[in-house]
């Protein structure tokens, strides 16, 4: 098969959550363990860092990987979903897996896949771990796909586990109770492995402490170690000022991720890196500063408060649940503009009412849908939005919506593109 034929096989023959949602979710690790045994446990050939959480886990994963790359290590990075190219999910030192490696993997093992019938995600995790082992990476930063306890990535024994935060997302799979969701995320905590918690959250804190205690894992809350002081954006970089509680000194970090919400993510990443240092990895202050100032360059991270153009300013962000949308709206409020135009689409298994109730009423909306089966129909979205006094027109494609928004905008206006990761994927 060609690379395109291979992708077609993967996207259409294997159940894929990105496209079809709940039907592709496997509530056990049976296939993952079977594939792991078939490939002779490739994840045991390299060190790992495991990152879970509702929001921020992608940014934290890329931040840690960037610093580890700067420290001279050969670093694997596994994340999901992809935005433009499937190969974004699997990188080594910022370089995507080759097309030929993907083709050969499917061709060489297709019979086994047809026997086991794994999901798209189960197969992709197997590909990532096998590729990292063959390429002899020193360490891999592995982002959880969904949840934690039953996620296909949860067969690794990392040097450190990271949980960024917990909020309601994928409630159709993980439950509506925030403590139940926290228990699922906390499923990545391994016996004796330290865990860094990105945010101290009421009710959830005791869930993490209890599970960490049971598993004799040292638990660290990032905000207890670094207190955030202030930030400013200068020359295309965000300057973050923290106070190190242990060292009793200020720590200044320059970061190329511009979203205000990155303050929590960078703090979490720094704490995880300190734990890696405690376990013998050589990571200097220079590696940390250099890596965090060049995350996009080093890892190719896309879609995090990403400025697509100026005059009018077009910004996209992949935040898509209630907590993520709140952060985005706060960021929009800190941005100068004359008029706000919003290119907006959602998937049909999200809590649309909560999200729509948060969206700014003064904006003009360009309701649209991404080109995936899970996308909420743009006319249905408009009807739901009207109940919250959100007004605008409908478009069957994201590109058409964005082009119309640009035509309607003056150079002093702001166009925001978001609501769904998959909407952003069509504009970056």
From TrEMBL:
The protein's annotated pathway: Cofactor biosynthesis; tetrahydrofolate biosynthesis; 7,8-dihydrofolate from 2-amino-4-hydroxy-6-hydroxymethyl-7,8-dihydropteridine diphosphate and 4-aminobenzoate: step 2/2; Cofactor biosynthesis; tetrahydrofolylpolyglutamate biosynthesis
Keyword S-adenosyl-L-methionine: no
Principal EC category: ligase
Record has Nucleotide-binding as a keyword: yes
Superkingdom per UniProt: Bacteria
Cofactor: Mg(2+)
Signal peptide: none
GO molecular function, one term: tetrahydrofolylpolyglutamate synthase activity
One Pfam match: Mur_ligase_M
Keywords: ATP-binding, Folate biosynthesis, Ligase, Magnesium, Metal-binding, Nucleotide-binding
GO terms under cellular component: cytoplasm
Catalytic activity: 7,8-dihydropteroate + L-glutamate + ATP = 7,8-dihydrofolate + ADP + phosphate + H(+); (6S)-5,6,7,8-tetrahydrofolyl-(gamma-L-Glu)(n) + L-glutamate + ATP = (6S)-5,6,7,8-tetrahydrofolyl-(gamma-L-Glu)(n+1) + ADP + phosphate + H(+); 10-formyltetrahydrofolyl-(gamma-L-Glu)(n) + L-glutamate + ATP = 10-formyltetrahydrofolyl-(gamma-L-Glu)(n+1) + ADP + phosphate + H(+); (6R)-5,10-methylenetetrahydrofolyl-(gamma-L-Glu)(n) + L-glutamate + ATP = (6R)-5,10-methylenetetrahydrofolyl-(gamma-L-Glu)(n+1) + ADP + phosphate + H(+)
The protein's Enzyme Commission number: 6.3.2.12, 6.3.2.17
InterPro entries (UniProt xref): Folylpolyglutamate_synth, Folylpolyglutamate_synth_CS, Mur-like_cat_sf, Mur_ligase_C, Mur_ligase_C_dom_sf, Mur_ligase_cen
Residue span, Mur ligase C-terminal domain: 303-420
Domain named Mur ligase central: residues: 51-272
GO biological process: folic acid biosynthetic process
Protein purpose: Functions in two distinct reactions of the de novo folate biosynthetic pathway. Catalyzes the addition of a glutamate residue to dihydropteroate (7,8-dihydropteroate or H2Pte) to form dihydrofolate (7,8-dihydrofolate monoglutamate or H2Pte-Glu). Also catalyzes successive additions of L-glutamate to tetrahydrofolate or 10-formyltetrahydrofolate or 5,10-methylenetetrahydrofolate, leading to folylpolyglutamate derivatives.
Family, as annotated: Belongs to the folylpolyglutamate synthase family.
Name used for this protein in its record: Dihydrofolate synthase/folylpolyglutamate synthase
Species in which this protein is naturally found: Marinifilum flexuosum
Taxonomic lineage: Bacteria, Pseudomonadati, Bacteroidota, Bacteroidia, Marinilabiliales
